[in-house]
Design goal:
The protein has 205 residues and is of the alpha+beta class. 45% of the residues lie in helices and 28% in strands. The C terminus is likely disordered.
């Protein structure tokens, strides 16, 4: 009798675990389809060929780094490794879609304020710019701002030309960007108190 009860309880637990797993898989699939349905901009930053020495010769692989954004204030970066280039790019793109962050933009074209970022030996400076300036950035940083939707920005990278460090330093800087509205809400003040009357009215509009 006890054996039957234990087997019934075990079967019930297994059924519950299977149901939870199916729900989790379904939720993950729905979120993945929702992300993939967005109109995203994909920028291939670089591909490296790596070789592993094995018995009988060298075995080649590829490492790709991809930047993905919606050109409306969201951007992400990912890296992928595979034996073939398309598979490495696919892995990097999926990781970039999962790691997207939102960056507040001023008038939808530039940053709200100057910001500094660093990662390892890489240091970057990002400065807001007036209309018509364009994207003053080179290499991987340009791809980030194009995918982010920034039209006017001035940047400087110091310390390294490694694209991985440059991108991570840039994302470190972007993560520090805040909007006057969020600062005012956090401090319990009005936007006009933070920026001044004229700029506060423009921001509120």
């Amino acid at each position: 009798m006890a054996r039957n009860e234990n087997s019934a309880a075990g079967g019930e637990n297994e059924r519950r675990g299977r149901d939870r797993g199916e729900r989790r898989d379904r939720d993950n699939r729905d979120r993945r389809e929702e992300r993939e349905g967005d109109d995203l901009v994909e920028k291939l930053v670089g591909i490296n060929r790596v070789a592993k020495v094995v018995k009988g010769g060298r075995r080649f692989g590829f490492a790709a780094i991809v930047v993905v954004g919606d050109a409306k204030g969201r951007v992400g970066v990912g890296s992928g490794k595979a034996r073939e280039v398309p598979e490495a790019i696919r892995k990097a793109t999926e990781q970039a879609k999962r790691s997207m962050i939102r960056v507040p933009l001023r008038e939808g074209r530039t940053l709200h304020h100057d910001v500094f970022g660093h990662f390892g030996a890489g240091k970057v400076v990002l400065r807001a710019a007036p209309p018509g300036t364009g994207i003053i950035a080179g290499g991987p940083m340009r791809a980030i701002f194009e995918a982010l939707g920034v039209a006017d920005v001035v940047t400087k990278s110091v310390g390294t030309s490694n694209p991985h460090n440059m991108i991570k330093a840039t994302f470190d800087a972007l993560a520090q960007c805040v909007s006057p509205r969020s600062v005012a809400a956090r401090r319990g003040r009005r936007v006009s108190d933070i920026l001044g009357k004229r700029e506060g009215e423009k921001e509120a509009a």
